Amino acid sequence: MNQQRAPERSSFHLNRRAHPRYSLVRRPAVLHTATAREPCVVRNISTGGLMASIFHPRLPGEDVRVELVPGELIEGSILWTRDWSIGIAFKKTVDVDRLLAQQWVEEAREERRSSPRLEIDCRATLRVNARFYYGRARDISSGGARFETSQSLKKPGPAVLMLPDLPPLRSEIRWTQGNEFGLAFDEIIPAEALERWVADRSHQA
């Protein structure tokens, strides 16, 4: 991410020893700022803060509110940014066990549906081990994508899909058919972020 000015120092400090981290990987949430409402993915959380993946640039020192459970906003401040990740310190300690238990209740009420695939035609780069493949992404969903290239796959394995204006997407190659690869993302893209990205691609085209 390109930042136009030097980052501000957050007024909050998180004592990592006092707030042990819970493992909470790939949990969609909403980040509320002074001017926007943006999807994010919470990577881990403690009583005093969390780390999340983001899809738009943010600066240290920003006051934010995190909505992990619908309707429940946790106030905090961005401590640091690194590429497509941020660290947030909460203004007050939170009851993580209660919060996560409530999250599972809310998710259980929702109907589980597979994420729809959206057709796209976007330049893309796929890294498999130390080899780079250049081609096009032909469709995408919150959980995966179809990648097409003129090169042949030398050796399957973990992959990283790189698309314009999105963080690198760590993936597994689930299938190959000729010069097409089917990818499953290690971490989902929130539906709101994906729809916004696809819409931006359509406008640019």
User: Main β-sheet: number of strands, strand sense, barrel status?
Assistant: 6 strands, antiparallel, barrel
Q: What's the helix count?
A: 2
Q: How many structural domains? A: 2
**Strands, count:** 12
Q: What would you give as the CATH superfamily of the largest domain? A: predicted glycosyltransferase like domains
Average pLDDT works out at 83
Report the end-to-end length measured between terminal Cα atoms: 23 Å
Strand content: over 45%
Q: What name is given to the CATH topology of the largest domain?
A: Thrombin, subunit H
Shape type: elongated
Oligomeric state of this protein: single chain
Strand numbers in spatial order across the main sheet: 1-2-3-6-5-4
Q: What CATH architecture of the largest domain do you see?
A: Beta Barrel
- The portion of residues assigned to helices is 10-25%
Domain PilZ: 15-99, 111-199
InterPro entries: PilZ_domain (IPR009875)
Organism: Sphingomonas tabacisoli
Protein name: PilZ domain-containing protein
Task: Please explain how this structure is put together.
By secondary structure, this protein is mostly beta strands. It folds into two domains: 88 residues, Beta Barrel (Thrombin, subunit H); 87 residues, Thrombin, subunit H (Beta Barrel), CATH 2.40.10. Helix content is 14%, strand content 47%. It has two helices and twelve strands, in the order ββββββαββββββα. The strands form two sheets. A six-stranded antiparallel β-barrel has the order 1-2-3-6-5-4. Strands 7-8-9-12-11-10 form a six-stranded antiparallel barrel. Strand 8 and strand 9 form a beta hairpin. The radius of gyration is 18 Å and the shape is elongated. 25% of the residues are buried. The N terminus is likely disordered. This is PilZ domain-containing protein. InterPro entries: PilZ_domain (IPR009875). It comes from Sphingomonas tabacisoli. Pfam families: PilZ (PF07238).
